[in-house]
Design a protein that fits this description.
- By secondary structure, the chain is α/β, with parallel strands linked by helices.
- The protein has a single domain, classed as TIM Barrel, CATH 3.20.20.150.
- It contains nine helices and ten strands.
- The strands form two sheets. An eight-stranded parallel β-barrel has the order 1-2-3-4-5-6-7-10, surrounded by seven helices.
- Helix 7 links the parallel strand 6 and strand 7.
- Helix 1 runs parallel beside helix 2 and helix 6 packs parallel to helix 7.
């Protein structure tokens, strides 16, 4: 099978429009169908539903309608979840397959659930028969608690072609790792690439540093270099999914408008690179 790289948008590119920021609730909260339609308008190829737009709340009939709508629009779907208990993994593999998705992005931890690395591997191994039957690929995302080397170790210990890594370009800053360190260990196992940009600024009168989001291509992230590194080192297909860490503006209307501008410019920028 040929290796492919397609451009997509995540529900985490529209955190405010999706109503997943508690301090801003738009009158019309973006739905799964809205996000698919937005991808069509942008000329993107993929939609990834993150855990801020959880698919577990939908019935099988509703999931089927999501699949049909995406198929009619020519949009590839991916799913996302957090808290990787064996029960939730099994449910989300089924959901991903139900919507016709190939990739399930996984954040291992959840509220009250922080298993050790060996326990995570044991849980993931337990769902491999279901992965094989469904054709779904797991992409474990770097997210705070483990180092990039430890995420690579998970994949190496499991040693299965349907278990890889989702590389987030910013998350590992919370583990005091820069992107070069992340790519060094994780790029060979990339099955999904979350592109989001950031800036680091002085704040509080110079008494500290603040890391926050930026419109893709305007911050510190070497977007072309990141994509090139993953493309060279990974022999697997992976999609490039746009996300963002945008701060709210003074009004909800301005926030929603700027958020949409960030997505439009981000997808446009990715098209010059991918």
């Amino acid at each position: 099978m040929a290796v492919t790289h397609r451009i997509g948008i995540s529900s985490f590119a529209y955190c405010f429009a999706c109503g997943s920021r508690p301090f801003t609730k738009p009158q019309h909260i973006m739905t799964t169908h809205d996000l698919i339609d937005k991808a069509v308008t942008l000329g993107a190829d993929v939609v990834q539903f993150g855990d801020n737009m959880p698919l577990e709340v939908y019935s099988d009939e509703e999931l089927e309608q999501i699949r049909i709508h995406a198929e009619r629009c020519g949009i590839e779907l991916e799913a996302g979840m957090r808290k990787s208990t064996s029960e939730r993994l099994s449910d989300y593999i089924r959901i991903t397959h139900k919507i016709g998705g190939r990739v399930l992005r996984v954040i291992t931890d959840g509220i009250g659930f922080t298993p050790e690395l060996n326990d995570i591997c044991r849980i993931l191994v337990s769902v491999i028969p279901q992965l094989e039957e469904s054709g779904v690929v797991l992409g474990i995302e770097n997210h705070d608690r483990f180092s990039a080397r430890e995420y690579a170790k998970m994949v190496e210990m499991i040693d299965h072609p349907q278990v890889g890594l989702t590389i987030d370009t910013v998350n590992s800053l919370s583990h005091e790792e820069n992107l070069d360190e992340v790519l060094k260990y994780m790029a060979p196992y990339c099955v999904c690439l979350h592109m989001k940009d950031y800036v680091i600024r002085r704040y509080n009168g110079g008494g500290g540093l603040k890391i926050t989001g930026a419109s893709l291509g305007t911050g510190r992230l070497d977007v072309p270099g990141c994509y090139k590194e993953c493309r060279i080192k990974s022999n697997r297909s992976f999609n490039i999914i746009l996300e963002s860490w945008m701060e709210p503006c003074e009004t909800l209307e301005e926030t929603l408008s700027i958020e949409d501008e960030w997505v439009i410019s981000g997808v446009s920028y990715l098209k010059t690179i991918i």
